[in-house]
UniProtKB/TrEMBL annotation:
Residues 38-374 form the Sulfatase N-terminal domain. PROSITE patterns: SULFATASE_1. This is Glucosamine (N-acetyl)-6-sulfatase (Sanfilippo disease IIID), b. InterPro entries: Alkaline_phosphatase_core_sf, Sulfatase_CS, Sulfatase_N. CDD domains: G6S. Belongs to the sulfatase family. Residues 1-34 form the signal peptide. GO terms for molecular function: glycosaminoglycan binding; N-acetylglucosamine-6-sulfatase activity.
Amino acid sequence: MASSRVGQWRSSARVVSTCLLAALLTCTLRCSECVKLSNIILILTDDQDVEMGGMTPMKKTKELIGDAGVTFSNAFTATPLCCPSRSSILTGKYPHNHLVRNNSISGNCSSTAWQKEAEPFAFPVYLNKMRYQTFYGGKYLNQYGSKDAGGVGHVPPGWDQWHALVGNSKYYNYTLSVNGKEENHGDNYEKDYLTDLVLNRSLHFLEERSPNHPFFMMLCPPSPHSPWTAAPQYQQSFSDVKAPRDGSFNMPGKDKHWLLRQPANPMPNSSIEYLDNAYRRRWQTLLSVDDMVEQLIKKLDSIKELNNTYIFYTSDHGYHTGQFSLPIDKRQLYEFDIRIPLLVRGPGIKPKQALQSPVLNIDLSMTILDIAGVNLSTVNMDGQSFLPQMAPSLRNGTERPFFLIEYTGEGNSSEDPSCPKLGPGLAVKGRSCASADHEPKADQAGVLHRRQLSKRQIKPCQRAGRTPALAVNANFSNVKMYQGFDLHTYLPKFLRDSSYPVSIYSLLWCSKPILFYFYHTMKVDGFAVDARKKDDIRVSRYL
């Protein structure tokens, strides 16, 4: 009897030991999987367009990232201006939620309020909590490092290595904040050219990092932003290139919104010569970024991390060179200013994909966090992950149904008590403002894009700026604008206005001396409704 009990005990002990061993092995495997989380790199250029040929110089980038992964043909910025756009990328939020209105301190660009209220919830903070090793190099926000923004000693949370440019884009004679310490640079190409410096320091980071944890790098070269200082070896490149002359180049904007009615038309020869020179020099600066991509991928391959690394290539917004007689700039809600390049390669992404799914730059943060294994339900952002579109074998999901593009101008916010608040904590306020001729004195028009399959084929809008961004069906062959469905189902809560009939919305943001104007279309064939006048008007009237 005793012998039988001992045998049973030994048998039970073996079972328990086997179970414990299996559990330990499972735990070990899971920990191993955690260590093998994918690395992520985000390359963010400054002012690089798509519509005006901005990707033409990027032959290596298109081959090494686009051909090796996916190219999005309908990627847009939430706002066509540097600081608000970059703030949207970092927070995953629309400008009306992160409250950065323009490139000034008073417009909340890198302000102390931004540092207190937005930076602690930027996506790198979540990555750092997931034990990602993080590196930042290059331009951050336009007012970063200024005295009013806390100086170079301020290092945003979430970054292990911080090599950020103080102020706006430069190539030489700039100051960096290196982990909170001031570092001044001169005009020696070998030591100071910013695009190359960002590359070299990122390569050093890759050499020094721990192999036991994944890494995230955000590389932000100044190209192709002014002053368009090319590396010496590229200063004679593209000598015969001129800005594109098709589409709306040097066209009058007399039937467009008030800003487009201001430029002289036709442009003087001096303006055309200037913009042609700017166009060439922009391309020249991008050749160094193309080299950066090549060197980075070679390094990843040599350390055997290339196949476990997602690489995103994009820009903060587009650009124009002569469209509607506007020589150079951004800020306009037309395709040339709001479309951005977006190329991605990485694990699970099949090569040579061309996707038409609409993607917004506020989606970058959620996609990166999705890759990093963050529970997205715990993250308060407006964006959504587009990992399901890139790699459906890894994630299930749907493309975004709509998006908003907005810009509030360079004026100071108004404290007019007649301006109703648009949402909790929203600093910018709104009211209906119109001139005597009943045309909205708006700085820009907000745009709500809505994709809906339709039996009726709509002719795609012409490219290169002849039609406004509001005509979302540019390059979308099967798009139907708002018609006969309840926008309350789709619009964000802050846009719902019971004072107008359903599907009619007007959003005016008070700003001195100019406003922000929100439009949507109700009719299919390029017409819009002005919610104040209640007339049908052509979209191009104000855009």
